[in-house]
């Protein structure tokens, strides 16, 4: 709406790449418990689904995984 400022939200996603399995995942603390209301839960699930359905044998998975996050991550 005109005259109203919109505050953009952002957050950092720490990712880790496993060279042996060509998998890009979100780095999680082993003690942390994710609840469905946290953005990290949505990120983690999206990356898991990405790797389940996209077997990338001939290319590194980092760029396609980040692109998947940018294109399909929705937070409510």
- Low-confidence runs (pLDDT<50, min 5 residues)? none
Number of domains: 1
> What's the overall geometry?
globular
Distance between the termini: 20 Å
The portion of residues forming beta strands comes to: 5-15%
Q: Could you give the count of β-strands?
A: 2
> From N to C, what is the helix and strand string?
EEHH
How would you describe this protein?
This protein has 76 residues and is α+β, with helices and mostly antiparallel strands. 34% of the residues lie in helices and 11% in strands. It has one domain. A hairpin with a 4-residue loop joins strand 1 (15-18) and strand 2.
What is the element layout, followed by pairings?
Layout: E1 15-18, E2 23-26, H1 39-53, H2 62-72
Helix pairs in contact: 1-2
Task: Jot down its keywords.
single chain; 76 residues; alpha+beta; two-stranded antiparallel ribbon; 2 helices; 2 strands
